[in-house]
Amino acid sequence: MTKYQESSISNAGYGGCGCLLLLMGIGVMGAIALPSFLNTSHSCRIPEAKQYVSSMNKGQQAYFAEKNAFSSSVYALGLGIKTETTHFKYSIRATKKAALNYGVAKEKELKSYVGGVFLVPAKNFEPNAAKEERTTTSILCEADFSGTIKPAEPTYKNGKIACGQGTTKRSK
């Protein structure tokens, strides 16, 4: 037997153990990573509603600038947002002085969002604006608790906008 043959025979037993250890290592890493990977699907749904309602707020402001009225239709905003996705329902309630944009969860473990766009005196933001001039301002609110109930609408009182009871202001 040559020296090379002896060496390959003696190493043959270790090759099988190496593969087994490698497979066990991959299995352990998979077991560690899998729960966090599965959890991301839940957290990915939250930005959808937050982003959609924020976009609806911006769409309402642009719509008002063009038409001097708020839209009561998600489609009329021209954002390409569907009124219903797998996890949320989107809707609008518009008045002459405000537009309320909703992203209501369809699953109990998700939080809902509501946005408000309000018609306000331009003097609140621009001191040199004419007294009768109007502009819009907006707010984005997240429900404090998960659930499938429409969140309380934000309000505009005494020159200030605020989230409704049971909701918290979020960045746009």
Quickly describe the structure.
The protein is an alpha+beta fold and 172 residues long. It has one domain.
Topology readout:
Blueprint: H1 3-67, E1 88-94, E2 98-105, E3 113-121, E4 134-143, E5 155-157, E6 160-162, E7 167-170
Index terms:
single chain, 172 residues, alpha+beta, two-stranded antiparallel ribbon
Q: Strand sequence of the main sheet, in spatial order?
A: 1-2-3-4-7
Calculate the terminal CA-CA distance, rounded to whole Å: 76 Å
State the secondary-structure class. alpha+beta
Give the low-confidence spans: 33-42
What does this structure look like?
- With 172 residues, the chain is of the alpha+beta class.
- It has one domain (45-170).
- 38% of the residues lie in helices and 26% in strands.
- The chain has 1 helix and 7 strands, in the order αβββββββ.
- The chain has one helix at 3-67, and strands spanning 88-94, 98-105, 113-121, 134-143, 155-157, 160-162, 167-170.
- The strands form 2 sheets. A 5-stranded antiparallel beta sheet has the order 1-2-3-4-7, with helices on one face. The protein has a two-stranded antiparallel sheet with strand order 5-6.
- The model is unreliable at 33-42 (pLDDT under 50).
